[in-house]
Amino acid sequence: MSKLRIAFVIPTMDQGGAEKQLALLAIGLPKDQFDVHVFLLTRDGPRSEMLRSNDVPVTVIGKRFKLDPSALFRLKRCLQSFQPDIVHTWLFAANSFGRTAAWLSKTPTIIGSERCVDPWKRWYQFAIDRWLAKRSQAITTNSQGIVEFYAQHGMDRDLFRVIPNGIASRQSESIDRQQACQRLGIAEDRRIVLAVGRLWPQKRYRDLVWAAEMISAVDPLMTLVIIGDGPQKYELLRFRDDVTSRQAVTFVGHREDVEQLLPHAEVFWNGSEYEGQSNSIIEAMQAGLPVIASDIAGNRDLIKDQVTGKLVPLGDRAALAQATLELLRSPDQAALLGKQASRFIEDHFTIEQLIQRHATLYQELCTDAGS
């Protein structure tokens, strides 16, 4: 049997969660069964190095502005040259341009991918989604909450295939507490609460800063360490300085050593307004950290309240502070939640499962297309 030719289309190869999952999938699909090519609609990014170093070709289409018709036709020509059996697109811009180009080039099987609940979309964007869904054989996603969101906006829930994110086994060399605190620029006696993610409104970091200020009034040794960068950086720094101290909340920017730092935290926070399936939560759970997160659709897929972590009402800063103080005062409960979280991730969120579920879907859809 000849190899299936898979064209992945995504806007960039930046450091986001969707880009990481695509890279893991593209690299991991068995090379004796699949011929994979990645097309970047807008520009290149740091995760491309993972692909190229594993002999996965990457082509940058170079879309210059939001409605760049030349990018659509360049992508169409590239697909006609590659002649894929499947075009699998990720994220809104690539879902729109990529599926249209695949349809125009008569690709036999077209798959979209929705990675997040997207309340920012306007009516016309949902109209585009619905039109392209009718020309797709499937839409992959990582969360049942996303299925429900798009079903409420008129898309056929039967099109969706839920495939949870995959995470690699922990591979970094461990570091000791002193090293971790030195890297973060905090004293060794601090009790660390970690939050990791892009600094932008979806993540609601203002809520986390306020909750940290509440805790610091009771436990002055607690420090919230926020790892990440983004467009809200300077606004959040000013906000932090207005409401609390740098000892209570510290911003350390984007870091490549998060895996090594996680074991040295007491608690992990996520206060997002919406998520698909948070890679940062999965990584924290894998490391055995108790996670306290906002009670939203994507987080509920990962956290069973009081079993694999704690859920608190969205935006409830007092509830977040109270739940955290309970764990800081009860290390046995925190350790149990972390242990159960780690086991849950090990059982359900491996890279091997991610790859096998996609491979099975691709084979199934191509068999249906050929029958």
Automatic annotation (TrEMBL):
The gene is epsD. The keyword Transferase applies. Keywords: Glycosyltransferase, Transferase. This is Glycosyltransferase EpsD. Residues 16-167 form the Glycosyltransferase subfamily 4-like N-terminal domain. It comes from Stieleria bergensis. The keyword Glycosyltransferase applies. It holds the Pfam family Glyco_trans_1_4. GO terms for molecular function: glycosyltransferase activity. Its EC number is 2.4.-.-. Coiled coil: none annotated. InterPro entries: Glyco_trans_4-like_N.
